[in-house]
Amino acid sequence: MLGEIIAIGDELTSGSVLNTTSYFAAGQLFAAGHEILAMTTIGDAPDLIGRTLQRALQRADFVIVTGGLGPTTDDLTNAAVSSALARPATFYPEIFKKIQAYGKSLPAGQQVSLEKLAWLPEGAHALHTEAKMAGYFLVQDGKPIFFLPGVPQEMKDLLLETVITRLAVWDGEEVRQVRQKVYKVVGLAESEINRRLAHLEGRDPRVRLGYYPVFPEVHVSLTVTGVSSQEAEAAMHKYAGQVAGFLGDCCYGSGADTLEGVVGRLLAGRGQTVAVAESCTGGLIGHTLTKVAGSSAYFLGGVVAYSNGLKERLLGVNREIILRSGAVSAECARAMAEGLRRVTPVDHALAVTGIAGPAGGSEDKPVGTVYFGLATPEKTQTFLFRFSGERTQVQALASQTGLDLLRRHLLGLDNGCRTV
Amino acid sequence: MLGEIIAIGDELTSGSVLNTTSYFAAGQLFAAGHEILAMTTIGDAPDLIGRTLQRALQRADFVIVTGGLGPTTDDLTNAAVSSALARPATFYPEIFKKIQAYGKSLPAGQQVSLEKLAWLPEGAHALHTEAKMAGYFLVQDGKPIFFLPGVPQEMKDLLLETVITRLAVWDGEEVRQVRQKVYKVVGLAESEINRRLAHLEGRDPRVRLGYYPVFPEVHVSLTVTGVSSQEAEAAMHKYAGQVAGFLGDCCYGSGADTLEGVVGRLLAGRGQTVAVAESCTGGLIGHTLTKVAGSSAYFLGGVVAYSNGLKERLLGVNREIILRSGAVSAECARAMAEGLRRVTPVDHALAVTGIAGPAGGSEDKPVGTVYFGLATPEKTQTFLFRFSGERTQVQALASQTGLDLLRRHLLGLDNGCRTV
Questions:
Q1: Which residue from A257, B35, B42, B267 has the fewest beta carbons nearer than 10 Å?
Q2: How many interchain CB pairs under 8 A, A with B?
Q3: Is the ipTM of this complex over 0.85?
Q4: What are the residue boundaries of the MoaB/Mog domain, all occurrences included (chains A, B) (predicted)?
């Protein structure tokens, strides 16, 4: 089905808050086989809310509206909907009862009036009988409109638990079948990826390729359509392997894969462990590894050796090395990695030291210069990269590159294809 | 002036990529005194691009379009604009010359054809004569339309360097003066903040308050308008102090302040240092502190003691404590913080140990249980929090709370107002 997403809130149009809910909804709806015509963000302005909703109803099969449903005085969505669709505000006693119970569970002093949440446009149906801040839906001209909270977690839960399911069983629509696979690529420029894949485009009208820089990675989407599930799946089967082949070993995974998840599976599968010695990243590599549930099976921890003193004290880096070659050097990266293996019984020790900027660069070692050390029972290797970007971008590139060096080491791949 | 922002890309409507450029543009335009009527996101569909642009031109004073300008085959914005505004594609030799020079500077094997970038709708003016991937602008019916790349960094640079300035000197528009201040709050629920401030609303039509959960913080915006700069500034002066007063010491800063920046300024101002001993956050607190340029002046580093073995080896935590009270306990947090102060000469040692989930919880210590230790030359304090949310949310809450405990300690505040 063809859908529109409308996000409401002055905080969004004034750029105070990044809109992540429309993005999440689009991804989930797309994965469920729907297509999104437009995502519109507007302020808490009742007239504009009404006009935007009416236009969406004219051209889409369903509409999702997020935000402006809360108890505070700047939440105006329900009033706008009542007016635009001529559905007077109506009191829903069951909803009020549920909200009252929730309100009483709040600590004393926070028991704000939540009665407003029980006044909804006529014809509203609660989406969830248990959720404390339920959204609702209306059917207008045979088309469903879903109203969800703007708070990302509440919105996501309701979308997944109720909206996707209701749309899947909606009557009377011819569904165009869409299949998509997203490839995750690290260490290749977008233009090089386009060069490798361009010859696959335009030959088959059912096939579409997309190139998306998702810093510090590039994601490539392969989208195929068909009038039936079988046709869409056959086309996906035909092209998926070709795309993967041309991307080569810079493609670390697909779909919901993350680089830290892939590295974690490789380590867990071998019963091996990793620890990190981080300078310029300040702990980002360690934190990224621990985003994965169960990472304690292979991640021991490590040292954030941000100051030279901690490099010496906690990792046993020889002061001579720092005086002679500098803290940002291959020698120091090697000493950090090897030092970490001395103080903790770990299989793979990954060290990173570099200049994140904006200060600290020199002609020899400009901002973005980052050395990596990787010490294993067999040997220690060092790597030099020069990244460009702002401080936090250099940190993100260094973290992602460090994890990718570990992935390549675990898979026995060379490091030749990197272009960062 | 009243503006619209249109973001173009299938990667956005399919939910593959989060749209951060519209958010950035809205924030910058708002800060420059403009108002955004709508932010629309659509796919690479020429007809829809044309219709969306025409509607924006009808109701706004200026339009900003991002995305779809690149060299790859799925970039269709220019073709759509040529068709919708009846401005045939025209070859711009100067732009081609500049692009050619850039193309030759790429490594061999990546020299893709960039000629497409020199074909623009008739009447286009390059926005920047130096940028390698310049955007352009057109004037249609007396209204400027700016076309910017979808790549966030390129778009941001061009917006700040060219668009904001051109709009500031645009002729013939009455400019409504807007002033905004955003307060950053940590450790108070949105509903409690609304309760504290609600009495300030509705008394003065020039004043508007907004409440925005920006996980794990809440931001509060105070927006005032006036027919003149003086009036707007006088209103801001009148209300800014009142809002700050009612928010109290849970408000750590305003505007571009970050909690890590505020903590850093407090430490730097006293010539003091901090180090971190992190378990469940895996390095997030350290990394957050190093996001601030110049943080090496006060941040030494620390230990990511994710495994119990590293807690013992690197921090000297007594194994008896872990056997008796568990690694997630006040005793262990205290031992981690005090151990860190033993191995590094630091003023403030912050330790965190908890259960991020989804596994590992128990009846006594459910998922979200996090203990903090803060060791200073004078004493060691421990704190217990119970957070709710997914694994990465618990990690983010723990990191933010740890930094806030440090801020409160440095300012001599109690910890009474937290409600997380």
A1: A257
A2: 350
A3: no
A4: 4-169
